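#random but structural
TW: two for the price of one
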Amino acid sequence: MMNSEQQLLNQINTISKTYDLVAKSTGENYNIFKILGLESAEVKTHSRFLAELLNPKGSHLQGDLFLRLFINYINHLTKGTESEVFEDKLLSNAINLNFYTSNVSVEKHIGKVIDEEGGRIDICIIDSHNNIICIENKIYAREGDKQMQRYSNYAKKYKYSYLFFLTLWGNEPETKGEEIIYPISYKKHIVEWLELCKKEAVNLPILRESIGQYINLIKKLTNQTTNKEMEKDVQKVILNNVADSFIIYRNFETAVYSLYNLIIRNLVDKLNIYLEETEWHILKIGFIQKYSDRGLIFLSPKYLECHDGFGVEEFNPLANKHNNFGNKIFFGITNWKQDRGFLDQAKGILKANSYGGWINYDFPKSNIFDFNLSTMELINYLKNDAQIEEFTNEIYRSFIEYFEKNEKAYLEYLKRKDLIK
């Protein structure tokens, strides 16, 4: 006999399949951004799409309509009526922009990066009255060194300046200057503004559908359903089965964490065998027990006198804030006690890229898997031991390639620093 929890899951599964049939008949899952592989391209996709809508001279030929909608929407938020992120940093005056004379640019160059100056602002809006809006756009990337501080210093040159830090979830910036920086999110603020834009474009089918496809892309990146009617139907079933829904909710995180902790354990077993005859060992393993845990495997030379080495991180598909590259597994060199002096030295000598506390970062490469764990499709795929083993092997193979490519140069660097003999 089927228990009540299983019956509840079956009801939701039936709703999902029904709307899948609707999607098939309407073609709503066809998304040009996904097809072209541009889902997470910050500049090529997101900054350019948003800037084109904001541009009064944009190809949409709607003048300053969408820019006005954005400014009006933000001004409403800063009154404290809609968004908690602004409650402790309200604008003393609403943004007052001359829409007609506003120029919108992408990747605006503000000089060579030198300490607290220079860089490229993702989206920059400047009007004839010497007002400036700077929007720093982050999908999965972390901030560069003193990035928002550099932009803050640049914005001081203008009469009125407004700095926004745009991420999927509304994260606070890590680097700040003297100027107030407003965190905004794709999940809430951009989607809500775009819905207003779509409403105004109702009689312009190509523009309306382009905005709609972009909204669907954002909802995919932020783990939201794209069908509001399906949401209502699922919520109705949940509210009619509160006790059973709570049991499922209470066990969902544990079930997901158990799956990825198993992958971490399997990967550790493979790495231990590989490292037996090398100068390396696994110094730290971070399993996932709560929302804020990332999942980590950290390798260090056996005779190293400090906590530096190679790491594999980001195994938690449910964490959506304060991570390095969204929910994407990555490799890199780090000091797990976050010794910035060591990392800055290593970055300079090894000529490596960097984000946060990681240098020389890279991502697993596979013809089989996308290692962005935020997609529920991946969890759905990892149903049995064979598929879990296949997934683990792809991470292992890709990490060993990365490790062997970078190990020699890194050990030479450590020896020159007299950290190992």
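TW: number two ↓
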Amino acid sequence: MHLGKVEAIDKLTVLQVGTLNKAIRPDQGYCPIETVIYNLDKGLVSAGHRSIVACSADSQTVGERYVTVRRSFGSYCREDCQGWEELLQRHLASTLKRALGGDIDIVHMHEWVHHVYDGVFNPPLPIVVTLHVPATQSGLDEVYENWKRSESQPSVYFIAISEYQEREYSTLVNIYRVIHHGVDVKTFPVSTTSIGNSYLFMIGRITRVKGQDKAIELARKSGSKLFIAGCVQNKMEDKAFFESLRGSIDLMVDVSKFDVGKNYYNSVIKPLVDCDKQVIFIGELDRPQKNQWYQHARATLLPIQWAEPFGLVAIESMACGTPILAMKKGALPEIVVDGETGFLVDSLEGMVASLERLDTIDRHACHRHTEQNFSIARMVQDYIDVYRQVVEEHQFKPRPLEPSSIPIPIKELPVRELPVLR
């Protein structure tokens, strides 16, 4: 912990509590929360601060990696995962010991806030919590009410990821600030022309609220070529939904086995564009792969049937210069500038009509919009401002542990040698 006045701290030390659903890495497919953690870690280091991520050993961080468990579960659906609760308790216990090491200014969590209130994870430090899920899925109603009645009140500062989400949580918790997600814009290949971009693209978790069935209906009504990418989680309703789509999909091909190289478009994308199949499912893509599919698409579709709390897909697509065609729901009006970086509509018919206007969108403008509003640098600076304000408000500095009691991280083994948890 730094000495002197709190406001004089120049270099912050931030401990992020990593998730265990998937490893924290820059190159994975569907991993929205892990992507935010990685981007924040990368941005903090770039800004000259000390970033520590408590995470599984199969993670890759830019800052310091503090290993708490040997392997992530590799899935967002944990109903069938044996040993999940035991692994979580081990993760939080080890992270708590690290938080008490005496050198941490602030803790940043992304889930499990209920364990702050029940005392399982209760460091005497300010805790920033980014809310990633809809209020109805948070479980915070009962937790927060119990906390307000208790004598022990941890210093928790909630961050909403959109103004829409802030309104959604308004009756549950006090939102300290709204901070939109950011991406490393310079790592996205930019397509500055729509010439040759003849297909529509949709990517995301395969589930009814994401609207893959609506995307297929749009393709049929407009005669457009459509590629659908995404993962099917181990949930009965999602599996059933995917099965219901099979009859509407003309071709299923797994393109994940093809690494991105200089000839990726001509060897992977173009043959599928040129084939006589209209609606094609291409499976789950990693980041380099999905960037290629974004870049060469005429538009990225978001025909969502729910109020999306944010929408990383939108800023990733626009970073590649590809406009968005989406339902006007949730946080999307905060992300997409209607008529400038895409079109926001209220119906499927509106989406079909907007297809004719896609060529009026300046793809340079899409990229600039992301660069100016949704960069890692902007997101990180917003969090740094929050960290400084929170540390100043908190004032309390925990007593450092004796050297012998500071935890030693689990030995970092190569991922290929890590034992499988059972």
